[in-house]
Amino acid sequence: AQKITQTQPGMFVQEKEAVTLDCTYDTSDQSYGLFWYKQPSSGEMIFLIYQGSYDEQNATEGRYSLNFQKARKSANLVISASQLGDSAMYFCAMREFRGGYNNNDMRFGAGTRLTVKP
Amino acid sequence: NAGVTQTPKFRILKIGQSMTLQCTQDMNHNYMYWYRQDPGMGLKLIYYSVGAGITDKGEVPNGYNVSRSTTEDFPLRLELAAPSQTSVYFCASSYSKGDYEQYFGPGTRLTVT
After folding, report:
1. In this prediction, what percent of chain B has a pLDDT beyond 90?
2. Which of B99, B102, B108, B110 is the best mutation test for A, with the most CBs of A within 10 A?
3. pLDDT above 50 (res A101)
């Protein structure tokens, strides 16, 4: 079963505007972590932001924030004030912490390609 | 620090050949991972290691083998390469488990023809 769903294969945003990238996940665990990674055209994977399932506040890192809605099982990434350098693939990922923090099986979504237009 | 390094960057293999993808990290991380990324897809975990001498299977381990004799190195071995193994391979490491971010290498683009 698909654990992570990113329904937007591609998104466009005007420079300096905000954009939301959708991510929904499927888990029966109460304890899990959600990650967002950026993959520019050069291919490397860059960690952006993390949200734990027990974190009460939405995570923020600079221009990135995570809109975490636990009941809906969604973890959308919000990028404020988009820049041309934000054009990239963005991947949502989840790690379930069943049995404690020993599980290392991180599942990735298929990604969303964001294009920032000048 | 170099972070996570991978060699080679590109490789073309013929069906049935074998090769080893090298991965080294200099951050003294205990946890290391191998992922593959097929075109237009997210990453899938092949194998991981929680420390020297300890490895375990991920989501897609068939056709691969790993070893972890040192903290720094985590090579991935492909035996009898098949076209289905054409992919980009990423090595990653993390300080610990759980909520720690993973640091990724630049990737190895492998084509099997």
Report:
1. 79
2. B99
3. no
